Amino acid sequence: MSGLAAIGTAMIPSFLHSCISGTPESAVAAMNHFNVSAEDLKKVIITALEKGGEYADLYFEHSIQNTVSLRDGKVNVASSNIDFGVGVRVVTGEQTGYAYTEEINLEEMLKAAKVAARIASDNSRHPSLNISPKEFKNYYPIETSWEDVSIQQKAPFLQKLNDRIFELDSRVTKATISLTDKSSVVMFYNSENTFFNDYRPMVVLSATCIMEQNGEIENNRSSRAFTMGFEFLNDDIIEEMAQEAVRKTAILFGAVKPKGGEMPVVMGSGGSGILLHEAIGHSFEADSNRKNTSIFSDKLGKKICLESINVVDDGTIPHNRGAVNIDDEGYLGQKTYIVKDGILNSYIHDRMSAKFYGVEPTGNGRRESFRHVPIPRMRSTYMEEGEISETDMIADVKYGVFCDVFTNGQVQTGSGDFTFFVKSGYLIENGKMTTPIKDINIIGNGPQALADIVMVSNNLVIDNGPWTCGKDGQSCPVTCGMPSALVSKLTVGGK
User: Fold this and answer.
1) Of 22, 20, 18, nearest to 133 (Cα)?
2) How far apart are the C-alpha atoms of 142 and 144, rounded to whole Å?
3) pLDDT recorded at residue 7
4) Could you give the CA distance from residue 240 to residue 199 in angstroms, rounded to a whole number?
5) Do residues 88 and 48 touch, judged by C-beta distance below 8 A?
6) How do residues 434-481 score in pLDDT, each as one tens digit?
7) In this structure, are residues 271 and 282 in contact, taking their beta carbons and an 8 Å threshold?
């Protein structure tokens, strides 16, 4: 593993500095990186279409992931993983053939192309092919690549975060810190002469704080995830995360479980966006609507919530975990209004669903790796802010709960029925937040909860945690966000 890591880390930096934008020079650098030629790419595409496929594409990927962890006060765990290969897709009508290989040479690529081509059985096609790099805006420029940084340079930041957590509160008994960085080089070419290459950095820093008070033990965490290089690590982010980890843990002492029942719920800004993503966002993905498994399948162009509500899926937020310069099918990252002025304005599309609906793709064709086909996936999904202050919103609630930190939950994607676990929040009594609460469930239906939002605050926060979306056996990095929003009624599972 160490030998392979040394080869991989030497390859990426030289490529990085020459392939950020779609230029002829970057295209050559990309092909050299994967040790293939333009003629190789054309031969594989022609082979993929030899049975009469309508469309074919190639997706190359080289990823290096490193993790460093601190446990028991010392940086004492490190691991690395390298992923390298190419996937070949052939599309005929509604059918897809897919094959991949972890050995990138012409012989193995042609074998994969022949396997993928079996989905079609008509006459062979010989498209006119050329290499013309696609230009795009870079939403995640970096100063220092992770491949240029040693463990010895990373470790002091983990140690400093650990030490600062202990300094902030004498009740702290333990902290665990982890840093994961990932660098991916991708290259894409299809039978329509779309060619792109992209360098995709990723970093996640997480800190778990454990505290004890009078025999009671509580824990909570702080985490940040961005598409950034080594410049992400600095004293400001260390201080911010240490303060947050301690504050979020300390508030749990003395927190209670409120009486359960149906009541108004204020979804706090930021992490409450996970409800928007899971219980509602998946129902906006075009593949589920195309198959009529989404509750929104017949709602396009119709009013589904308050007129002042806008829901966005955005791939253009600089350094955001869900940012995409260009999606995994060659469509530019963009900002898509799913809900506009309370009306369902657009689904989020990949190539196949866009063709079905007769619209342009929205840049949401994403895949976990070269081993997977692209499907419609969210990027950064959030609700735009309203005009009322959070204080005025809370003042309108006689009795209810304020939900602050979510951990996990379950969602029935088609119907949107959900149960979410709320780690912490507050009781709302007579228009004011009073007693801290913890460990409650909120239960409801996503589309109905969206329809039952009666107020949206002016405090939008994008939660920059390490959100990862799972769908159809694939995982993709995403983010979510919300301004505070008042849902007129949800079921709260308490005492």
Assistant:
1) 22
2) 6
3) 32
4) 28
5) yes
6) 999 999 999 999 999 999 999 999 999 999 999 999 999 999 999 999
7) no
- The two tokens of residue 57 are 């594409």
Of 493, 459, 482, 262, the closest CA to residue 381 belongs to 482
Q: How far apart are CA 266 and CA 405, in angstroms?
A: 12
In whole angstroms, what is the distance from residue 169 CA to residue 166 CA? 6
Paired with 456 in beta bridges are 485
CB-CB neighbours of 39 under 10 Å: 11
Instruction: Give residue 495's pLDDT.
Output: 73
Low-confidence ranges of the chain (pLDDT < 70): 1-22, 122-123, 125
Q: What is the pLDDT of residue 22?
A: 62
Round to whole Å and give the CA distance between 482 and 271.
7
> Mean pLDDT of all residues in the chain?
92
| Residue for token pair 């939403």 | 139
The strand pair at 261-267 and 399-411 is best described as: parallel
Q: Which helix (H) or strand (E) holds 402?
A: strand 399-411
Q: How many CB atoms are located within 10 Å of the residue 24 CB?
A: 10
Whole-model pTM above 0.70?
Answer: yes
Task: Evaluate whether 88 touches 157 at the Cβ level (below 8 Å).
Answer: no
DSSP code, position 230: G
How many Å apart are CA 162 and CA 153, to the nearest integer?
16
Count of beta carbons in the 10 Å neighbourhood of residue 240: 13
Q: What is the Cα–Cα distance from 262 to 405, expressed in whole angstroms?
A: 20
